[in-house]
Amino acid sequence: MVILLVSIIIALIVVIFAVQNAAVVPIHFLFWTADLPLVLVIFCSVFAGALLMFCLALRRELKCRKETKVNKRFTSKRAPASDADPIDIPQKDSQNKDSQTVAKENTAGASEYQK
Fold it and tell me: Which Pfam families match (predicted)?
């Protein structure tokens, strides 16, 4: 019901706009000249812009659908999560030892570079 009411209001605004802009204006494009009602020129311009936006949105939608289809194929080829091995999470002590070893190697390499 709300959509119908909004549509009627917009239609009334368009009709009022068309009645008030009924003057004929000359249109020049390259070597072509025509006398058209102003409202027709404005509506054609708006329609051309809407058509362009629709084409761009359609292109994006098709691209997203294609990516979704590829992602679905990729996830279906992978093993289900219940069959997967649990991930080994290193303990804090082993992380500290590994980081200390890496730090010592980095400082040793840096001191050799400085010599």
Answer: LapA_dom
Q: Is residue 85 part of a domain?
A: no
> Residue 44 sits in which domain range?
14-76
Hey, is 22 helix, strand or coil? coil
Residue 78 in tokens: 């992978």
What does pLDDT average to over the chain? Answer: 76
CB-based burial of residue 8 (10 Å sphere; 0-12 exposed, 13-18 middle, 19+ buried)? exposed
Residue 58 lies in a domain: yes
What is the separation of C-alpha 113 from the centre of its chain, rounded to a whole number of angstroms? 48
Length of the chain: 115
pLDDT value at 43 more than 70: yes
* 105, 97 Cβ separation under 8 angstroms: no
